[in-house]
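haha ok so turns out i had the wrong file open the whole time. this is the CORRECT one, sorry everyone. sequence first:
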Amino acid sequence: MLHRSQLHGSLADPAMTSMNLLNEISIRYPEAVSFAAGRPAEQFFDLDAVHAYLDRYLDHLQKERGLPPEAARRQVLQYGRTKGIIHELIATHLAVDEGIEVPAESIVVTVGCQEAMFLVLRALRGGPEDVVLAVSPTYVGLTGAALLADLPVRPVADGPDGVDLADLRRVLAATRAEGLRPRALYLVPDVANPSGASLPLALRHELLALAGAEDFLLLEDNPYCVFGGAERLPSLKALDTERRVIHLGSFAKTAIPGARVGYVVADQPVSDGAGSTDLLADLLGMIKSMTTVNTSPIAQAVIGGALLTHDHSLRAANTEVAALYRRNLALVLDGLARRFPPGNGVTWNEPRGGFFLVLTVPRVVDDALLELSASQYGVIWTPMCHFYPGAGGEHQLRLSVSQVDPDTVDLGLDRLAALLAS
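then structure:
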C-alpha cells in the first residue's frame, strides 16, 4: 500500500478535489435543478456537424492546401505535429474575431485550455523563488495547474471592475520583499469564471502599462468573450504592443467541448544568453512533447472544419447561443429580484453577459450546505470558497445560467429561496 506522504504534495490539497465535487453531487442527485456546471447549452449539439466539419477540413487540405488524398488522411489519422495542425486557421480566427495579429508559429494547439495553463506555468517556474499571481476569486483549474507545476499562487483582490490595481501593486511589492519573483498575473478579462466581472477598457490599458513598468507577464484566459454582452471590448492581447500577454484560448464554449481543443498564443522571444532566440511557443511545444505528445489530429480537424465552415468567425457562429445565454441571465436576475427584495441580506452582481453570477448571503456557504441543498431542497450551485487560493467566499455562491431554461429557473430559484430562508 502506498502512502500519501510519499506522493506529490498537490494530491493533499483541497483544490484538487474541487473539479470532481460538483460532478459527484450531480450524479447522486440527478433530479436536482443545477445552477452549478459551467457547461455549454446542449440543445445546439449536432453529431452530424462533426462529420461535416471533418469532411470540410479534409476538403481544405486537398483543394486549398494541395495535399494528395493519402497525405490528407495521414495528417488527420497519424501522429501529428506537436504544436498542432490547425495553428494557421486559429491565427486567422483570432485576427477575424478578436483583432489579434500574431504569427501562426506562436500558437500551440493544446488538449483543452487546461493543458495550455499547465504548459505555461511549468515553463515559467524557473526556480523556488517564482510565484504566479491570480485575480481572486479565480478559476480553480489555474490553482490546480499551479500546484502541479510547483508554482505558488498569490491572490490579488478583484475589485468591482475585475482587478484592484492598488492591491496588485501591494502584492507585487510584498512578494518581492520576500525575495520572490512574480512571473505573471492570471486573469479572465471578460465575464470571468467565477465572478462574472469584466475589465473596462481604461483598466485594460492601465494593467498593460503596469505589467510593462513592473516587468511581469499577463496570462489572459478568455473563453467567454463571445458571450460578453453588447459592448465588445478588445482583449488584452489585441491591445498588447510589448508582448506582455500570453493568451489562452479554448473552443469548448464556442464550438465542441467534447473535442477538447484549446490553444496558447506565446509570441514572446526567449534568449539563451548566447545570441540565440526562440519563441516561447516553441519551448512550450518541447514540454508538450513530453506530456501529451500532440493534440488529437482528428479533434483538431473537426475544430478546423468548424472554423472554415463559419469563415473563421465563431462570434458569428454563436449568435443564437449567445442570445440564449443573455435570456437565461436576464431570467435569473429578474427571478432573484422578485424573491430577494432589498434589505433581506441577499445581494448579487449583474454581469453584462457570460455564464456566471455571484450571490452573497447571510450564512456560511460550504460543501455541507451544498449537500443539504441538493439532498433536501433539490437545487445545486457552487460554493465560492473553492475559487479562492486562500480564505474568502465563505458567504457567497456561484450560479451558472448556461444550462437552465425558463421552467428550471423559477423552480430552482424557489428551492434556493427556501434553503436560504430555512
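DSSP finds 15 helices and 15 strands in the chain.
again sry for the mixup
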